[in-house]
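Feature request, filed as a ticket because there's no other form

It would be nice if the structure record came with a short human-readable summary line next to the tokens. Right now we just get the raw output. Example of a typical job, pasted below so the devs can see what we mean:
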Amino acid sequence: MINIKTYILTIVSVALLFAVILVFRVNGNNEENYANSNETEFVLTQHQDRNNLNDEISKSRKNILTETVEKVSPAVVGINVIEIRQYRDPLFSFFDDPFFRQFFGDRGSSNREVKGLGSGYLISADGYIVTNDHVAGQATEVKVTLTDGRTFEAEVIGTDLASDICLLKIDGENLPHIEPGNSDVIIIGEWVIALGNPFGLFELNEKPTVTVGVVSASGMNLEPINERYYLNMIQTDAAINGGNSGGPLVNSLGEIIGMNTLIFTAGGNTGSIGLGFAIPINKVIRIVDELKEHGKI
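Raw output as currently delivered:
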């Protein structure tokens, strides 16, 4: 006969053992979930801390110059041109004599297609662009690249050899453009930024190259070059190289004060030695208004 007391003790023992196992499993799952939760929170916190750190670094490195570059860059353009130039072979120079020309014609010259490049900047939301005459004034084909990667065929609205200023037009709307400053009130020694397309580098990522310097001098009257007269020029030590011609020179407020035009070099060097010159923006504005209305000066 089964002992009732022993039977009851056995049932109670089994029940207690089952309860202990159940509690252990529940606690184990809770601990595992808690560990996973902590790990997820740690990863999220670490990612957030990294983003906050990057934001703080960016804020600490930003200044009035970087903000100006960010503001002005979208209005800068790269320019590629095709120009037909006449070349004369020196070996046939005797054909220049009128006596020979009446029999043989002009045998010493030929036309060649020449590719060139330069910089420019948008001055209006509807697509007016300013550059140098020596960049695009004599071109038969002008292509303009914007910082958003779009490329446009540009029309030469007007150009002036003497002032070396050329006005282009592309078909667009709501385009970024640069506000003019006042070149009559520039300060010697103030920070300036030159933006442009030196050596065609704009084409690599549709972004202008940026160099920084100061206004070194103003009112500089230079010797004429190829019938172009450079008077009252702004001198800067911001690096200007081949392809920068036509690009903007802006002050720290993001206002254009001049158009980068030429450099002085020495010893056969064609690179910048810190002697760059820009046409004052007040003069550019006067010429551009004439070109827009009449197509010439």
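Something like this underneath would help us a lot:
The two ends are 130 Å apart (CA to CA).
Residues 30-35 have pLDDT under 50 and may be disordered.
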